Amino acid sequence: MHEGHRERMRDKLFTDADAVTDHELLEILLYYSISRKNTNPVAHELLDAFGSLAGVLSAPPALLGMVEGVGSRSAEFLSLIGAVYCRAARAEEAKRPRFLNFSAAQAFIESRFGDLREEKLELYCIGEDGGLLYLKTVNNARHDSVGADAGCIGFALSQVKPHGVILVHNHPSGDMHPSAQDDRSAGEIARVCRVHGVKFLDSIIYTKNGSFSYYCSGRLERLPGNETEKNGGNA
Question: What pLDDT, on a 0 to 100 scale, did the predictor assign at position 226?
């Protein structure tokens, strides 16, 4: 199978992963252990032998090696991928923060911001189950330039496709009251979220004296760029 086919398959995977079948996904995976050979028949043989993609990735190397076309390198590679996936899945279930209410969000924010003396801004992409899907530090020093990061934030939202977003920054001064610039920054994020069909769940200001929630205060709906959307979610 010529190199052009492999490139087309990679393009298909990274353009529309949902359109890639299990045998095609396994075929692409085998590119990284089998060079200059058509891996499509090998992928079919593996699925036939073990019944499913999960069966292939959970099989021991010795059994994988018994499938025609699967050498020791490929057997070890597939087994390694399976081990990494299982480890990641267990860690995900055990450690992934969940923002089911404001108290849960506050505890996580406390662990992130603590006694920081410099200002920091973070964006949390949240799934429908309240789990944290992706965390992005938008700006480590000043949040008044958040608008310059709108394109980057928009790209992240288009890739992660979260249910909602929570914006968090701290006031090292200890004053938790939002400023006009805080409103503008939160409004800009609200606008980007609306463009991407993502709920803007909250903007939270953390201080050593407590936290201010735009959602809990009712200020969220009055943000510039967010007036037309009445958010029903919470942090």
Answer: 65
Three-class SS of residue 224?
coil
**138-177 per-position pLDDT tens digit:** 754 454 444 447 888 898 899 899 999 999 999 998 999 9
CATH 1.10.150 fits 3-93, yes or no: yes
The DSSP secondary structure of 178-214, one letter per residue, reads: PPHHHHHHHHHHHHHHHHTT-EEEEEEEEETTEEEEH
Spell out the domain ranges in the chain.
3-93, 102-222
What average pLDDT values come out for the chain (235 residues) when binned by 10 residues?
80 88 92 89 92 90 90 93 86 73 88 86 92 79 53 88 94 91 90 94 93 93 65 47
Q: Which residues contact 15 (CB under 8 A, 6 or more apart)?
A: none
Distance CA 204, CA 219 (A): 11
Structure-token match 């992706």, residue found: 134
In terms of Cβ atoms closer than 10 Å to its own Cβ (0-12, 13-18, 19+), residue 48 is exposed
Q: Tell me which fold the domain 102-222 belongs to.
A: Cytidine Deaminase; domain 2 (3.40.140)
Sheet containing 132-139: give its strands across. 132-139, 121-126, 164-170, 199-207, 210-213
Q: Which of 103, 159, 114, 118 is nearest to 136 (CA)?
A: 159
Spatial distance between the Cα atoms of 180 and 177, rounded to a whole number of angstroms: 10
Global pTM value: 0.63
Supply the pLDDT for residue 116: 82
